[in-house]
Amino acid sequence: MSIEAQPFDGHAVSPATQAFLAKRHGLLINGEWRQGRAGDSLTTSDPATQRLLASVASGGAADIDDAVAAAGHAFNGPWSRLKARERAGLINRLARLLERDAALFTELEILDNGMPRFIAGLTVSNCVEMFDYYAGCILGIEGVTTTPPPHVTADAEALTYTLREAVGVVGLIVPWNVPVSTLVLKLAPALAAGCTVVVKPAEETPLSALALGALIIEAGFPPGVVNIVNGPGETAGAALSAHPDVDKISFTGSTEVGRKIVQAAAGNLKKVSLELGGKSPVVVMPDADLDLAGPGVAMATFFLQGQNCMAGTRIFVHSAVHDALVERIVAFAKGFTLGHGLDPAVNFGPLISAAHAARVMAHIDRARADGARVVLGGQKLDRAGHFVPPTILTDVSPDMAVFREEIFGPVMAIHRFETEDVDTIAAMANDSVYGLSGSVWTRSLSTAHKLVSRIRSGQVSINCHGAIATNIPFGGYKQSGWGREFGREGLDAYLQTKAVTARL
């Protein structure tokens, strides 16, 4: 039955989305769409209704070989010969095409991932901004002159300068939680730096990457500059990570898979950027503005149903405000409207899959067995789709698994503390293998900045949480990853420095 006759949970999609879903979806290699060498395919479905969306070609190691060869040819050929302004022009053109098709990409993110419309629309507009930002950085990629070495200048004049050059062929491995946004935050700086890429989308959410591939062709990028190979991580992802002709891997995903990528990359010592797991601390001091902290702390955990790496799911609340804050968080969470993201009124969607929902529920059940008290949620909804409602746990001790392990779901664990000593509080916040994000809620700037300086995370916010933007570097300490994305640091990850000395 056609998509037109099967509206999603009572909500229709646009003709453009209908036409896209009806296509035969292949792999993008060397500027052409094709089926994988083995003829395999994978399917993707709507997590809110479990309805099949599309069948997509699935590639393996042989397809990765073809894609890497195409990227290498483009890197050493037509792409390298483009002037900086021409490269910037192509990226700007891609931004305008994405802007034109924003409604399509918004619907694809809703259908493939399950995110609410307001989040999907925001991520697509942010992608346009990222392309424009990094296109604007291209003319600023420049080296410096410096003092030549004395053994060269002993009997002659000399000139020493540095060049900033593209790393080469880059593999981009993208997660399922914010598919198009995570792809673009890697792709835009990689293209700006002059790299060529092979993209491996998450097998759960390949559609927006394929739609972006069509725009890349339309924008006029030379064949092979961007290649897209769908497929399982165990095959396509592993082959890309280990490939001897790939110069760099950029991966966003779990810490467990990040370790495997590091091992695979050791063969040719390729450069690796990793944005991995998190268990971010949220510290609420006794002088916090509770009217601000209530919804702020709630969204720190429940944004995108908790399926984001910087989610604040370890909540430290001073006993003086514990009960009042919990009351506000519960009231806020009860105000979420659960349902299909195509409905503009919905602000809380499903989890990505049945397996992931089962994993989240196992964490909740274990926490309950360990003595945590469920004050909201705690049960999977009995309806189509993978819906786990906002779940709030109190009486949580720091040794419980729910307080230590990344859940990647809508589960808030609250720990009550008594002290106001910043060193003690920071030690509690730092008692984790992760260090990605975090926040401090207080009216005291002195307390806030003392805690920020002591919390070992790549990003710590004061009276807000997850304050990311295109120009602000983002990445983790400890087992939350290597390197930074966004901002100038995100561009630097795709560049390397060459020193040149000329005896005159």
Explain briefly what this protein structure is.
With 504 residues, the protein is of the alpha/beta class. It is built from 17 helices and 22 strands.
Structure description:
The protein folds into two domains: 281 residues, Aldehyde Dehydrogenase, Chain A, domain 1 (3-Layer(aba) Sandwich), CATH 3.40.605.10; 190 residues, Aldehyde Dehydrogenase, Chain A, domain 2. Helices cover 39% and strands 19% of the residues. The protein has 17 helices and 22 strands. The chain has a seven-stranded mixed sheet with strand order 14-15-16-13-12-18-19, with helices on both faces. The chain has a six-stranded mixed sheet with strand order 9-8-7-10-11-21, sandwiched between helices. A three-stranded antiparallel sheet has the order 5-6-22, with no helix packed on it. β15, α14 and β16 form a beta-alpha-beta unit. α2 packs parallel to α9 and α3 packs antiparallel against α5.
β-strand number = 22
Examine the secondary-structure arrangement and name the CATH architecture of the largest domain: 3-Layer(aba) Sandwich
Number of domains: 2
CATH superfamily of the largest domain: Aldehyde Dehydrogenase, Chain A, domain 1
Integer-rounded radius of gyration: 24 Å
Distance between the termini: 75 Å
The CATH class label of the largest domain is: Alpha Beta
Number of alpha- plus pi-helical segments? 17
Low-confidence stretches: 1-5
Class by SSE composition: alpha/beta
Task: Note the main sheet.
Answer: 7 strands, mixed
Question: What's the mean pLDDT score?
Answer: 96
Q: Describe the global form.
A: globular
